[in-house]
Amino acid sequence: MISKIATRTFASSAASAYKVSVLGAGGGIGQPLSLLLKLNHKVTDLSLYDLKGAPGVAADVSHIPTNSTVKGYEPEGLPEALKGSDVVVIPAGVPRKPGMTRDDLFNTNASIVRDLAKAIADHSPKAAILVISNPVNSTVPIVAEVLKSKGVYDPAKLFGVTTLDVLRASRFISEVAGTNPVNEKVTVVGGHSGVTIVPLLSQSNHKDLDTETRDALIHRIQFGGDEVVKAKNGAGSATLSMAQAGARFAGSVLDGLAGETDVVEPSFVDSPLFKDEGVDFFSSKVTLGPSGVKTVHPLGNLSGHEEELVKTAKDTLIKNIQKGVDFVKQNP
Ligand code: NAI
């Protein structure tokens, strides 16, 4: 007899059938993300929406023999696409080209995300919302403001997806240390762009890196996205690694909804950690539960250098968050 030791326990009445919607499913991230979500057995209803191309993606992934139905929707189908969703993932919007920062995407993506948030508020107000569209530091506050204005904001159900920074940190530290990345866990806190990305190497397996190696590693984690933008040479930014990151995070949110315990991921959420300093959203480890965010974890012990990095991150985050809030106030 084969025996298996469960690493997570289950609540007895946990549901295990979930509707997940992907808004922007026809894009570079949306397509592989839809594929990976089709492989998640907790997803029983996969709803793919885009301005163009979603029915084709849906027909394609629907032939994979897992226990979910897949439907693709064009613009007029957005209400139907969202109805009854437990999780809505948003990778809609334009990606970077060489030389652009994530903030350069603000003008285009802010209104896309605002309008999708309005539709979510109207048609699936109870869904967990996972924002991939950049700049995440501003698009997450945009979604919060829209939901607040419609009286349906639940801070425990809104997430900025920073998982790609976590994946990169594991990969890059393993390249420096010559280890298997599968065994490298690095907590990344702050936000999701440049200096707001703060990997806590002092809490990793490799706390004693020399200063030069440490600084180069931190810089690579903070600006790893630029490597992909440059290599794609105008054809976009990370899509495949991002799809893996998005699928992992969505999987963890579903695990939490299903009542599994000890489901912990860093995410950019409405956070109590630095609210008294004016930082309303911050990424740190979050325990996920049946209602979304269960616990926002403090950062833990930081080195003096990490304290400085976190301070710099906070200063930038305050501005990024305010920009999102102001956008919704000025363009409701
Ligand atoms: P893409 O251009 O390949 O795909 C975007 C898709 O969004 C397109 O299919 C487009 O038709 C769709 N779209 C645009 N407006 C829409 C609307 N109003 N409703 C529904 N769909 C709409 O771009 P890609 O590479 O998939 O990137 C998407 C976003 O993800 C970008 O903003 C990018 O910066 C961001 N991103 C975020 C990362 C993260 O770590 N959070 C990592 C990499 C990219």
From TrEMBL:
EC number: 1.1.1.37
GO MF annotation, one: L-malate dehydrogenase (NAD+) activity
Domain of life: Eukaryota
Catalysed reactions listed for this entry: (S)-malate + NAD(+) = oxaloacetate + NADH + H(+)
Binding-site residues for substrate, renumbered to this chain: R96, R102, N134, R168
GO terms (BP aspect): malate metabolic process; tricarboxylic acid cycle
Residues reported in the UniProt entry to bind NAD(+): G24, A25, G26, G27, G28, I29, G30, D50, N109, I132, S133, N134, M242
SUPFAM superfamilies: LDH C-terminal domain-like (SSF56327), NAD(P)-binding Rossmann-fold domains (SSF51735)
Family statement: Belongs to the LDH/MDH superfamily. MDH type 1 family.
Assembly information from the UniProt record: Homodimer.
Record-given protein name: Malate dehydrogenase
